[in-house]
Amino acid sequence: MQRILWKSALGLLAALCVAGNGSAQSYPSRPGRIILPAAAGGALDALSRIYGQKMSESWGQPVIVENRAGASGNIAADMVAKAAPDGHTYLFISQSFGVNLHLKTDLPYHPVRDFAPVMLVGTTDGVLLVPPSLAVNSVQDLIAIARAQPGKLSYSSTGSGTSGHMNMALFINLTGINIVHVPYKDVALAQTDLMAGRVQAYIAPLPAFLQFIRAGKMRPLGVTNIRRNASLPAVPTLQEAGVAGYEALTWYGLYAPAKTPRDRILRTHGALAKALQHPDVKERFAALSVDIVGSTPEYLGQYLKEEIEKWGRVVKAMKLQHE
Hints:
Elements: H1 2-18, E1 32-36, H2 43-59, E2 63-67, H3 74-81, E3 89-93, H4 100-103, E4 115-130, H5 139-148, E5 154-157, H6 163-175, E6 180-183, H7 187-196, E7 202-205, H8 210-214, E8 219-223, E9 249-257, H9 262-275, H10 279-287, E10 291-292, H11 297-318
Helix pairs in contact: 1-9, 1-11, 2-9, 6-11
């Protein structure tokens, strides 16, 4: 992957040298749009508004964030796939983008063919959470209860194919336990029911749950990365906790419709890359426990292909139902 980054960086530098010519001179000509498949208040929403503001400053045009939640990201993705490829409309999406191809029989778009990658903006760890009312203090405690009472425990997510669903599917696959999936329409409901003990587990993206963990309203058992998270240094990784081979990240990427002119992709990339260097942006990302990546377009394109392959294997192994 380092080789991909190096070659991509050389190509990006060459392209940036000519991006100031032609159509770039009259671009952007109107306000921009960032479409995201999430309700207001979550990590996707918070991140998009941080760099949307910086893009507005760079463009000299407003950049409007539009929340189009539902259907595991497919409503938002379909909107952008069908939008005019003129560099004014973008999709900010997460892990489900590499999963839905395996779960949806009538997906109205193709995540590779119908989109142009712009940047892998950042990544964050997932964290396995249980309510304080559940008498478990470790990953192995949870596994033991699930094995003793197969099908009795349940876990939440914000829908089929989302990070909460797939990260737990990977956990179940590697441990051989039986926990029932309970999808929710939005993250607030999932948070509420987890805290109340109506569901017993959730492998959640850390940004939207960190405040509840620190307040003692949820108990963290393990993080999904192969290294410990700086925001939760006392919490082991799932591998450390005995789940061999477990590794998963929630990622955040920006896409444009396919056939968007290269110079406009690069100008948007440049605006984002500059924004990610601002001290206030770094501070806000760190507060959300999001690691800045700021990749080239080519790197995001390759990363998505690898995600599609990875989660395809999980879907097949778990025999997850197509919708």
